[in-house]
Design goal:
Chain A is α+β, with helices and mostly antiparallel strands and about 260 residues long. Chain A has helices spanning about 1-10, 15-30, 35-45, 50-65, 65-80, 85-95, 120-145, 150-185; strands at about 185-190, 195-200, 205-210, 215-220, 225-230, 235-240, 245. The radius of gyration of chain A is 23 Å and the shape is globular. The model of chain A has no long low-confidence stretch (mean pLDDT about 90). Chain B is of the alpha+beta class. In chain B, a hairpin with a 2-residue loop joins strand 4 (about 55-65) and strand 5 (about 70-85). The chains are: A alpha+beta (about 260), B alpha+beta (about 550). Chains A and B meet through helix 2, helix 4, helix 6, helix 7 and strand 3 of A and helix 3 of B.
């Protein structure tokens, strides 16, 4: 009874987000992109950090001519589902229409190349499954050593031995790659028509280079007011956060219209 | 005349600011010394100076002076102060923490007068900008000009901060040197041109530029030293030099935003005056071959980041662009940039192919309006080539009337309406992923705890040993108790209940155990007296398996 209630409760937790998403899709199909944007934002606030919500939000923003925010929304969706061909295609479409030719920044994942195709949630789930297998096998082995343990249990426990090592290695690799992906610095997208990157955050700095809406950058340092952005050619400069949107799905998506 | 300012009594530490002169002209450099007498401090003192002065730390020295058998320690911090702008400027005050107390040397005021006309006639610097009201994205040229008469050694230019501008990346600074004659006097004129792109709209100021040089000292100064044995030596030029700093004024600039009115939807971002040349490598080709369009864009604006507009999706050909070759240079104070693009055109069908003119909208600051560059329309004759060349083959078979579905447009992909929404992020933390492996881990911990607890229960052998120490005194009962102890000890070792043991099973514990079993039987049930039976049972129980 209790597990059923818990399961029902878990499923119901996203009912509000689902309703808002469905309303957003309906408004988008009716051509009311402003209302569609509001519904998708509502779905995010209701906890629906889902690739489909970011897909819809990005589309609504793009239709309203807000390419920078659209790119940021699609980037967030792609980080939650790296294998989504639709999101990747939308990003390519929008990138062809931006002013600055910049290669999209790649997250620093080190040797964990598979993390480009796996979301953090998925790699965490796989690591959890691997460690569950390892510890389950160790539990079986422990049970098999108890006095009175059956022969069958002992045979099963012996056969699991080599697989346990493999599962442990896989669990360790996935755990490491999940932690590296979690710690990778997020990127940002310029959401204003033009902004200058400056040498300092104070008034004494000079403008170093200019970026236009839709430019995608890496963020190497951050203060509450500004971010130190890095271009592919290693140029750096400070830009106010009011001109940027982070691509981290955990961060709130700014609404410059407010 | 040296001015020395003392701040406290004779025996305590003293701090003083020593200035060579209080009057100087623009460009002159004088030494300033901060002296600490009989005190210790840490770090370098911070010597503030007015805006019209430039201060640089030259070094630190220490000395000891013995006067009237008293040793005095002096630490000197030496600075060079250069007058940049006329006016009244102060140096200091300076406060130092010395041996637990704060000493302060008061400020010293300097009067800086402008360079005389004669001095300006000898050497002068100016800075100009080709357009003081450029439009955002326009290229302007900043020119620094140094005019001098006579020798100048080791001239070093410090560029100003170009607030609101970024350096044009395709062109280096241009330098040139000429000689001009003015009123019969010959001057050397050195110019540095820097191309800049206006990057931030609004009121800006390009700061003052500095030029530091060493010039020969004046003749009058030499005569005050009296008889000079090296007066006629050519090497004198290397020994009598004075440092001079010249300042070019700051330049106020207004960077205007691009107008919204009249902006084409496909505005390229180019600002300037441009020309466009387009020429194909051939006008006739076979299907499957390609022709190269050579496109040259030239003008006085920056071309960095510009790409040719892509063709329409139903153009009837595919286009592939090489990386453009960009060149820029400043010549005679004007910036010129050239970009060469090579576009490969691959027709998709036979017949006459019309390639529409290349269209490049730009903003012309001189006209103050948007304009459009258009290249010529190009017509290609595409002759039949190899079979299937340039075509997308349908897998429906050679005889099929089906055609591949042609794309007529591109757009973003719609959102799937049947998605089930969840939180797919890890914003709530990783703890849900720790629960599944935690369950078997808890099982292992529980088993280990149970095992440890059971090991801590009373050792049966200990219980037997305790009973050995409290045997009944009555002989028959004592013998029965001994036999019971022996059986239980044997049963513990064999892992069997004591009641089921017989001689055959006890013999597995060894000959001694079998003999003891037999003797106990004989004593208990046969009435035989067996000596040292109790000691043997005790030894058997005490012996560890």
């Amino acid at each position: 009874m209790v597990p059923t209630l818990l399961l029902l409760g878990a499923l119901n937790a996203f009912a509000g987000a689902q309703d808002a998403f469905d309303a957003g899709v309906a408004a988008s199909r009716a051509g009311d992109y402003a209302a569609s944007e509001d519904h998708f934002r509502e779905a995010l606030e209701a906890g629906g950090r889902d690739p489909a919500v970011y897909h819809g939000l990005g589309n609504a923003l793009f239709r309203q001519g807000r390419t920078g925010l659209a790119i940021a929304a699609w980037r967030r969706g792609l980080s939650l589902d790296p294998q989504s061909g639709d999101l990747a295609a939308n990003l390519d479409f929008a990138r062809d229409r931006t002013t600055d030719r910049l290669d999209p920044p790649e997250p620093a994942l080190g040797p964990f190349f598979w993390q480009r195709s796996l979301s953090v949630a998925r790699s965490a789930a796989l690591a959890s499954a691997a460690w569950t297998l390892v510890l389950g096998a160790l539990l079986l082995r422990r049970l098999a050593r108890r006095p009175g343990a059956g022969d069958q249990l002992q045979r099963v426990s012996a056969r699991l031995g080599p697989w346990t090592w493999g599962a442990a290695a896989l669990g360790a690799l996935l755990t490491a790659s999940t932690l590296v992906a979690l710690r990778a610095a997020p990127g940002a997208v310029v959401i204003v028509p033009v902004v200058a990157a400056r040498s300092t955050t104070g008034p004494d700095g000079v403008d170093l280079f200019v970026l236009h809406e839709g430019a995608e950058v890496r963020v190497t340092e951050s203060t509450p007011e500004a971010a130190l952005v890095l271009l592919p050619d290693e140029r750096k400069g400070w830009i106010a956060w009011s001109a940027l949107a982070s691509t981290d799905p955990a961060a709130p998506l700014p609404d410059p219209m407010l | 005349m040296t001015l020395l300012l003392l701040t406290s009594a004779a025996l305590a530490a003293q701090l003083s600011l020593d200035v060579g002169t209080r009057e100087l002209t623009v460009g002159e450099t004088i030494p300033v010394e901060l002296k600490l007498v009989d005190g210790t401090t840490s770090g370098l003192p911070d010597l503030p100076a007015g805006e019209g002065l430039s201060l640089s730390f030259e070094g630190q020295s220490q000395s000891r002076v013995v006067v009237n058998f008293r040793s005095t320690r002096i630490v000197s911090y030496t600075y060079a102060v250069t007058a940049l702008t006329e006016g009244r400027w102060s140096i200091g005050p300076v406060s130092l923490e010395v041996d637990g107390q704060t000493l302060t040397a008061p400020a010293v005021q300097l009067v800086v007068s402008p360079r005389s006309e004669a001095a300006r006639a000898e050497r002068d610097v100016t800075a100009t900008l080709s357009d003081a009201e450029p439009v955002l994205g326009q290229v302007v040229v900043y020119r620094f000009r140094f005019r001098h008469k006579g020798d100048v050694i080791d001239a070093r230019w410090t560029p100003p901060g170009f607030d609101g501008f970024v350096r044009e990346s395709t062109a280096e600074m241009a330098q040139r040197e000429t000689r001009v004659a003015v009123d019969g006097q010959t001057y050397t004129v050195q110019e540095i041109d820097v191309p800049l792109v206006a990057a931030g709209a609004g009121q800006r100021t390009i700061g003052p530029a500095l030029l530091e040089a060493k010039v020969p000292a004046k003749q009058g100064a030499r005569s005050r030293r009296g008889l000079d044995p090296f007066a006629d030596s050519p090497f004198r030029a290397f020994t009598d030099l004075s440092a001079e700093t010249l300042t070019a004024s700051a330049i106020p600039v207004t960077i205007r935003p691009l107008p919204e009115q009249g902006r084409p939807a496909d505005f390229s971002g180019l600002v300037g005056s441009f020309s466009l040349d387009v020429s194909p490598s051939a006008t006739s080709l076979r299907l499957g071959e390609s022709v190269t369009l050579d496109v040259v864009l030239r003008g006085d604006g920056t071309l960095t980041g510009f790409r040719l507009p892509p063709p329409a999706t139903d153009a009837g050909y595919r286009a592939y662009d090489d990386e453009p070759e960009l060149k820029g240079e400043v010549s005679d104070g004007a910036f010129v940039a050239t970009a060469r693009f090579r576009r490969a055109i691959v027709p998709e069908r036979e017949g006459r192919l019309e390639i529409p003119p290349l269209r490049v909208p730009y903003f012309d600051p001189e006209q103050g309006a948007y304009a459009v560059l258009e290249g010529p329309a190009i017509t290609l004759d595409v002759l039949p080539g190899e079979s299937d060349a340039g075509q997308v083959t349908s897998f429906a078979g050679a005889e099929s009337a089906q055609k591949a579905v042609a794309s007529v447009g591109e757009d973003i992909n719609p959102v799937p309406g049947d998605a089930t929404i969840r939180d797919r992020s890890v914003a709530g933390g990783l703890w849900p992923y720790l629960v599944p492996p935690a369950l078997p881990a808890l099982g292992i911990v529980a088993l280990e705890l149970a095992s440890a607890l059971s090991r801590r229960r009373a050792d049966p052998r200990e219980a037997l040993l305790r009973r050995l120490g409290s045997l009944p005194t009555e002989p028959t009962t004592r013998l029965a108790a001994l036999e019971a102890l022996f059986r239980e000890a044997a049963g513990l070792r064999l892992g069997r209940p004591a009641a089921g043991l017989d001689r055959a099973s006890v013999s597995r514990l060894g000959e001694d155990a079998a003999l003891l079993y037999a003797d106990l039987e004989a004593a208990r049930y046969g009435g035989q007296a067996v000596s040292d039976l109790e000691a043997r049972v005790r030894a058997f129980v005490e012996r560890r398996p």
